[in-house]
Amino acid sequence: MKAYVYGASGPEITDVAKPTPKGTQVLVKVHACGLNRADLGMTKGHAHGAAGGVGTVLGMEWAGEVAELGPDAKGVKVGDKIMGSGGAAFAEYTLADHGRLFRSPSNMNFDEAATLPVALATMHNAVVTNGALQAGQTVLIQGASSGVGLMAMQIAKLKGAKLVVGSSTDAMRRGRLKEFGADLAVDSKDPGWVDQVLQATNGEGVDLIVDQISGPVANQNLKATKVKGRIVNVGRLGGTHADFNFDLHAARRIHYIGVTFRTRSIEEIREIFNEVRKDIWPAVEARKLQLPIDQVYKFADIGKAFEHMEANKHLGKIVVTL
């Protein structure tokens, strides 16, 4: 089968063996894939958790049909339309654990379904499970114009947040954040953004920050968070190391929580997918939670899709179809 593989000379479409499902695995005939920032790093040879390097089939998000079941796979049958996440997605066929997928709603095509699994699982876990957002509270999403950031704002609104703040350093994307739930849009490179957040929250700061940037905004986040508020760190787009004001962290008694899928067990990931199904799936089916598709590329043009992502001018998801 055809797959997009990182080789000694970089990523390229090549022939690899079609996988066979074992245990609780499901073999998926892939119809569409969503691109993610972690994929971009892996096309340059970087590792993402335990995955990466020469010989790696790239990709982590897909929509397709069940082609075959492992002996212990449950909950789906051959022919079911599904979407999910996991490694080796950029291929004609991929494997997925039966607990790491969703049934695609009947009112959603494969391209649309491929945009959702990573954003839904990541941001429900960050905003609701770890962020403990309650109706009437206030939230700031750092890096809100990314696909997962757009989803985080929508989930926050769905759960009853009274104020949603989104940050983006790009003026065009910042201007569109209100379409996805932002009541206030700020530029995290503007030295005055913390004052804007404090003004919008009567000087208190927000109850919750979901931070995809870290690095350069770490201390500003502390100033923008309410006393006894929460910061959930889901990314490191701004870098992995930075100065951190421990005294301010202690003085504001902030709960600082780190989350990532890279160190989670399959049991933990299954539970995250279960929580999405139990809590917000009716909103997915009603199309209340959805992401815009910026551009769709054919699989043969997947290199161009990554060039488009690297140019960093898109809003929403980039999709590749097979």
TrEMBL record:
The keyword Membrane does not apply. Keywords: NADP. Residues 7-320 form the Enoyl reductase (ER) domain. The keyword NADP applies. Signal peptide: none annotated. PANTHER family: QUINONE OXIDOREDUCTASE (PTHR44154:SF1). This is Zinc-binding dehydrogenase. It comes from Bradyrhizobium quebecense.
